[in-house]
Amino acid sequence: MSITIYNTLTRQKEAFKPLEEGKVSMYVCGPTVYNYIHIGNARPAIVFDTVRRYLEYKGFQVDYVLNFTDVDDKIIKAANELNEEVSDVANRFIDAYLEDVGALGVKKATYNPRVTETMDDIITFISTLIEKGHAYEVDGDVYFKPRSFEGYGKLSHQSIDELRSGARIQVGEKKEDPLDFALWKKAKDSEIAWNSPWGQGRPGWHIECSAMVKKYLGETIDIHAGGQDLTFPHHENEIAQSEAMTGKSFAKYWMHNGYINIDNEKMSKSLGNFVLTRDVIKQHDPKVVRFFMLSVHYHNPINFTEELLEGAKNSLERIQNAFFNLEHRKQTSMNMDEAEDHWFEKVNQFNKQFEDAMDDDFNTANGISVLFDITKEANLYLQEKHTSTKVIEAFQTAITSLMEVFGVQIEQEEELLDEEIDALLQERVEARKNRDFNRADEIRDSLKEQGIILEDTPQGTRWKRASNEY
Q1: 271-301 as b/e: b if 16+ CB within 10 A
Q2: Quick one: residue 435, left, alpha or beta (phi over 0 = left, psi -120 to 50 = alpha)?
Q3: With 0-12 CB in 10 A as exposed, 13-18 as middle and 19+ as buried, what is 179?
Q4: At residue 167, does pLDDT exceed 90?
Q5: pLDDT of residue 437
Q6: DSSP label of 417
Q7: What would the 3-class secondary structure string for 175-228 be?
Q8: Residue partners of 166: CB distance under 8 A and separation at least 6
Q9: What is the Cα gyration radius of the chain?
Q10: CB-CB contact of 193 with 201 (8 Å)
Q11: Confidence of residue 416 (pLDDT cuts 50, 70, 90)
């Protein structure tokens, strides 16, 4: 089964065929860096990082670009309020973004271009659009003409007349048509600006991504991705200006993740349910937050509640504990070759089921269900009287490799206990054998005070260190 992707452009699932065999070019719209990111910004970071990881798992080389909009009205406003330079505000929140998504297991992008580092490319791009008759300059501002591009509206599936009915010309704008949008904005007094053929100014939002895509990935790319809210006007305008400039298809596949609701209500500042990512990961293990985000298919909305986060934590512990149980049993297992083929076949079947789930438009929810099936089967295997080291390692490899696709690291056992605690564990085993349960409980409580949690299982007593609070 080949990978299929739900393409927003065609509104259907399509077989994924990259432009170049074995390679994937992927662009994800990053943040405008004027504040810390909220949990809604974290979702595309996690989702499309997982898409990238799965493509790499399948053997593709992925050139992954995520941009930073580091000059914008919001950043300028924040800089004025803080009495700081625009660059200082942008740098601080770029660092904060990388810190937050890094904690959530997001891999470093191949490139993280910034608008301010792409200015020459942006100016050249705009100049070409003017030369081709798709844009015009008025008193230092430059506008793109959507009516000059025949396919305008094809991503959002709206006709140009429908779009025009909701468009307005704002006070001070001198554009010819309400649909026209800014490519270059004339500088206001004392505002950060760059030299251009049209005077001092800075780029509009949409042109920035088009220029960065072209510079880092080329005129046509495989996958362009972002939040659902970017479909129109941002991505629609990207298509128009890019295809008008090059005469080529801009992106083969368009992917958009769904919204996040907070306690069944859409997250918004006006409702007061606006949640910053860094606040969430202070209260919850970042691995749990990531696992929770992947528990719902990326295209669907996701409801963010404390109860659901707790459920994700329990699910993650269930997988982790299965791995630990395998590790403990491996120490007393044997190298057995006979009568083990059917267990290897079961592991292989689980791997195939996982790939089938992920091949179907990166269905992480179904992929997680396969992980639960693996852990259930692993626990059943551990009830066998004799176990094979090779089979146990096959289960462990399956769990770790599939969790790696989800960007969640399986924890390894802590180092062996020191002699004093080890002696207490042995004493507790003897106490239980002698039915001296008071002494066994005393030892359990003593170890708990030292941060050691005991768990009595059919395979014997196992331990783990108490989790840190976030």
Answers
A1: eeeeebbbebbeebbbbbbbbbbbbbbbbee
A2: left
A3: buried
A4: no
A5: 85
A6: P
A7: CCCCCCEEEEEECCCCCCCECCCCCCEEECHHHHHHHHHHHHCCCCEEEEEEEH
A8: none
A9: 27
A10: yes
A11: very low
* C-alpha–C-alpha distance, residues 133 and 153, integer Å: 19
Is the CB of residue 285 less than 8 Å from the CB of residue 467?
A: yes
Residues 9/254, Cβ–Cβ less than 8 Å: yes
Closest CA to 324 of 465, 469, 418, 468: 465
Dihedral angle at the C-alpha atoms of 307, 313, 318, 324, nearest 10 degrees? -160
**H-type helices in 247-363, by residue range?**
277-283, 286-293, 306-330, 341-359
129: amino acid identity, one letter: L
**Angstrom distance (rounded) from CA 329 to CA 323:** 10
For the stretch 8-39, pLDDT in tens is 999 999 999 999 999 999 999 999 999 999 99
| Strand ranges (E), 67-166 | 135-138, 141-144
Cβ contact 76:36 at 8 Å:
no
H or E element in which residue 398 lies: helix 389-405
- Tens digit of each residue's pLDDT (9 = 90 or more) over 321-334: 899 888 888 877 77
Please name the residues in contact with 295: beta carbons below 8 A apart, sequence gap of 6 or more: 302, 308, 312, 315, 364, 365, 368
Q: Among 267, 215, 348, 243, which residue's Cα sits nearest to residue 42? A: 267
